[in-house]
Amino acid sequence: AVLKKIPESEREKVTEITMDFSDSMFSIAKQCFPKATIVIDCFHIVQRLCEGLEEMRLRFKRLAATEAKKEAVAFAQNEDRKAKQRAYYRKKHPRNKKEHRGRKRIRKQKYKPTLLANGETKVEMLTRSRNMLAQS
Q1: What pLDDT sits at residue 10?
Q2: In terms of Cα–Cα distance, which of 77, 67, 75, 83 is closest to 111?
Q3: Number of structural domains, the chain?
Q4: Could you point out which of 3, 49, 65, 130 has its C-alpha 20 to 30 Å from the C-alpha of 124?
Q5: Is residue 100 domain-resident?
Q6: Any domain includes 99
């Protein structure tokens, strides 16, 4: 309503309008300044790009966390299977109590996640890279 108070001849002289992505603002600009070229503000383009990158980073982080959990479960199942095999072997081949030679009893190994070249897991790297994407 305020822009309509400006005479139409003056409004037609406007050649360029810089604005954000707002649809309502776009329709107002088109109605009030029909001959103007609408330019989207660079800040908002970069902001949208950063939001898109952040969404992708979070999606990859969730996938990496799920993958790491599956790896840990598979590792634990494999360790359980090996422990059962060792127990079965010990049962079938009992030791002589008087002899104390041989190696130590093998215990279950703790899970160590796969590390990248920089010594981090995928999840750690994707967590750390949060601010780096926006700054570059």
Answers
A1: 92
A2: 75
A3: 2
A4: 49
A5: no
A6: no
Residue 52: C-alpha distances to residues 24, 46, 122, 133 (Å): 23, 10, 20, 11
- Do residues 15 and 70 both lie within one domain? no
- Tokens 């993958």 -> residue: 67
Name the percent of the chain lying above pLDDT 70: 91
For the cut 70, the answer to whether the pLDDT of residue 109 exceeds it is yes
- Is 35 part of any domain? yes
Question: Which amino acid is it at 127?
Answer: T
Range scoring the smallest mean pLDDT among 3-7, 31-35, 51-55, 131-135: 131-135
Q: Which domain holds residue 111?
A: 42-94+105-135
Residue 118: closest CA among 109, 110, 129: 129
Lookup: tokens for 102? 């041989």
User: What is d(CA 87, CA 82) in angstroms, rounded to the nearest whole number?
Assistant: 9
Same domain (yes/no): 34, 54:
no
Quickly state the pLDDT bin for 116 (edges 50, 70, 90).
very high
Q: What is the mean pLDDT of residues 46-55?
A: 88
